[in-house]
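User: Hey, my collaborator sent me this sequence without any context and asked if I could get a structure. I don't really work with proteins. Can you help?
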Amino acid sequence: MLKQQAERSTTALLSPKLELTSSRLHKLSSGLNRTNIMTRHSLFILASTLSTATTSTIFTTAFTNLPPTARSINFSKLTTRNMIFGKKQFPAPCVMGDESIMAPKKHGTSETPVQKNLRWNCDYDTADRICNFNRHYAEHAGYWTSTTFVEDAKKEFAEKGEITFYDSNSGKPLFVAPKGRDLDSFLKESQSHGWPSFRDEEVVWENVRCLGDGESVSIDGTHLGHNLPDNKGNRYCINLVSVAGRPQE
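Assistant: No problem. I've predicted the 3D structure and written it out in structure-token form, which is a compact way to encode the shape of the chain:
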């Protein structure tokens, strides 16, 4: 009898502690499961990085499918990955360039600051920083929709049947769009990816180069954005502030 009472008393004393321990173990297990998932995700990315061009495409596709905010955060990470694990040779008509284009000049990587009167009400300071003192970062995803670009682009397209995008530093033409598609398709693709997105036929290759890590630049040293190919081919995700210049007079 005394033994049974002692066992019941011991159980009563230990039960709350056992429940608390069980709860902690459950939380710990959940945390470990999340860690395992994150680890597997990291290993997937690493495997894509270290593998061949086929899995490199998988990596790029995974990046493309991220929501705009996540793409903005990871934009520089993709570039860093390319820099570490080797340069690429993008297929024609893409024109490749070398690092000498982005060598230091009078104003960052360019000879001059960006134009004061940029189109579409683009912010001067943001443009000058991204164009001339930056190699890997971008305006935030969707920035282009916060400007007057969409409204003005529709007017220009209605008048001319195309929109010309000029270097924010030099005023040289860099892109002419849309080509091979209508304006709605161009805007929808740009909206989907978070930045104005151009295809090979829309690039003025006389004035644009693509570096081995995917960075897209003007021949005068303006940072434009990056080439992030998808299953349709080369796709140039470009900062609006980099192509908001006015034409040379």
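In plain terms: Residues 17-22, 32-66, 68-80 have pLDDT under 50 and may be disordered. You can pass these tokens on to your collaborator as they are.
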